[in-house]
Amino acid sequence: MAAPPASARSEILSRIRSSLGRTNATGEPAGLPPARIRIPDVPLETRIGKFTAALQKLSGKVYRASSREDARAYVENLLHGRSAVTSNAPFLAECGVHSIAGVRPGGADREALREMCASLDAGITSADYALADTGSLVMISSHEEARLVSLLPPLHIALVPLERMLTGLDELYTLIPVPSDRSSSMVLITGPSRTADIEQILIRGVHGPGEIHVVLV
Amino acid sequence: MNPIPVEAIQTTLGDARLQSAIYSSTARLMDKRAHAIDPEEIDDFQGLRTQANAIKRHAIDNLDYYLEQLEQNVIARGGQVVWCRDAKEAVDFVARISKEKGVKRIVKSKSMTTEEIDLNEHLEHGHIDVVETDLGEYILQLAHEKPYHIVAPALHKTRYDVADIFTETLHVPREEEPERQTQIARRVLREKFLTAELGITGANFLIADSGAAVVIENEGNARLSSSAPRIQIAIAGLEKVIPRAQDLATFLKVLGRSATGQPLTVYTSFLSGPRRPGEIDGPEEFYLVLIDNGRTRLLADEHKRQSLYCIRCGACLNHCPVYRKIGGHNYPWVYSGPIGAIISPQFHGVTKDPWLPFASSLCGACAEVCPVKIDIPKVLLELRSDISLAKRREGAGKWERLAFRVFSYVMRRPKLYEMGASMASAVFPGSQGKWLRSLPRLMQAPPIRGWLSKRDLPPPAERSFRALWRERQRAKGGN
Amino acid sequence: MQRVSVFVTCIVDQLFPKAGLAMADVLERLGYQIDFPEAQTCCGQPAFNSGFWDEARGVARHFLDVFEGSEYIIVPSGSCTSMCGHHFADLFQDDPAQLARAHALEPRVYEFSRFLTEVAQATDLGAHFPHTVTYHDSCHALRELKVKAGPRQLLSHVRGLTLKEMDVAEECCGFGGTFSVKFPDVSGGMAQTKIDSILRTGASHVVSIDSSCLMQLQGVISRQGLPLQTIHLAEVLASR
Q: A215 — alpha (psi -120 to 50), left (phi > 0) or beta?
């Protein structure tokens, strides 16, 4: 099959240019409106309050742990003997999550991790950031955080240090103006998976986790 | 030139259950949007719309630059860019890659662009199992139907329809409860995600400075489609490119709220290329397929170019009184509602379905809610002018043109206008137009017949305003 | 005495002259002297909306000629005001001379209720209309001219009048000019939705600033023999 990509590319570009009334490529175009970034000045406590309200409105659960031990206890209680796979986030080790019965470290082997995520009851991760405005978690794919841990198991538990709580999207994109510099994947998770495709009835846990618990530490 | 699909429209209008489903679903989405853009919920939503429009205008006006920048950045991150002039080239590419890489199963997330190019139909011929994974699209795939709405594809299906479809195609015991129907789909589709070699997504935005595709969703199927299989392909129209990742701080705020009233959808994925060294999972290969398929032609008309700003939120559909009556399947293409009405003629030629831009009362509700401020009524009017000129060239629509030439001639001559008007008044006296209905020859004239099928017609006033005014002035003793 | 011109519109002239006379009454009571240029005919909107822009241009030029010297042009219609005040510029985008005239016209054209609230600054006209009414927001007025609060404010000062809002006040009535005859089933369906909502308010009258909308609704009311009347805002405000 002789489909020469180069010629499709040059034809499309030349069609674009002639449609726009130009013959040649231009340099960087003038007139790009500045990005609209407004970061409100909001104290941490208020951010935590907003985050909690926003996520709870979406039926996510938020627990404010008084300490790392408290966080661990919450997770143990929540799991209640069920199995879980963890990401490699150092913060999880700091909270002692791996000593809970039934919790297995995800490790670095892609196939083994996938198998665990597909079969265990819960996925435990940390998060790179949290966004107060919308009750979102920011998960950047890396050696510490694999993609599938927060996606395949029906229950997602995230342990997040308080200082990672940002005000919202504007602050996120100021801290990370070019997310692709960091990773092949950055995902904002805002509540449990849901659909309203059948008769507009809200149903949770379609493909992603139907239950999400965020433990702020 | 296709005629107005009168019978199909009448059937839809006569289906009370369907009317109720369309009306209540759209009403719900309208309500949610209204709540989400309230000043208590978000500051200066109108300012965000203005910004979104300005960014899109700049990006489209400099489309070649940003596409090249996008390409550079995708390649820098280990991905490949495939430029496709038309649907065939895009479908051929996917087929070729599938063959080369031994793909037997493809999982797909919801993408109007892939509907546009009929991707599934063409791939299924090649004996590849192509699976729609968005719940609504999955249901439609099993039923062999096209989407009813840009954002809510199975709007027109009841739980009983879904039960029928699942029982027939999945051979499972009949289940009418939506919660349990969803679990059935989850179970079936999970197996597909984990065994598919290739995952295809669309892209809501393409980010030039990052070489990234942004995919938003609520279910998790796009994340799974882009993370579980070895190969990922993102397919998008080339108009989807925006300059910076930072611009998402604007677009994400207007998109979710306009579409479903959500400040953010559950998952917002920012995907750039295959997994990097150190990352544990993610695709090994990443392809970005850029589709032209007529978009570069739309670019050429500077008045209608704004049609390319669309971010596919569906708000215009929800607010359109015409869509809310005729539903998604009476539009000639996969894109329905007001946006469909303006882009279909531009893609396929204005004479294919010349009725489409006229299927609007120009109420402007669409323009009022469009997050990127496309002036849809203006584009509809431009298209109407194009159609009128095209018909003249092809020798069609002679009677209508004659009628308007007479109209114009008369309206430029006040005395003639008055004379014509008083003649009409003399010929059609009183009785609310009932007299008109007894005249069989007049019934032949489509406009009169059309009006009278549903309504009475007011008679010309016995005396016109100007006649009454003159009399009144005379009585007062002059002007 | 301030002199104002009126463009009554072809539909008011031929089908609903009472609305035009009522508007004249209200303006005269406010102390305006009315100029009715007899050479006026139509704004050209039917041709424009149907895509016959050459034909519309001729009519628009005639309008510009007729109203060249008018300081204020008052119009008892949202859609016609929008045509003269906004869309003439679309018609003449390739004709700089006419375009300049169209732009010069724009600030001088006023939909009737807007003239009252913004220029005359009169909201209480001493009117008396002891009925329960509902108000229909005609699309051009609402979305192009941003006329929404003004008419309601004017109605609030009418003695004896009770205003009940319908739940779909801002939805299109389905007229849309030739849309109503090209797509009669859809147009009829849209009118029915409005009528059902109006009936739920218990109002005896539906008021609008656009006679074309009223004509559409009246057509359905009359066909179905419903206990409703349509009336132009001007007629309500002129009632004593």
A: beta
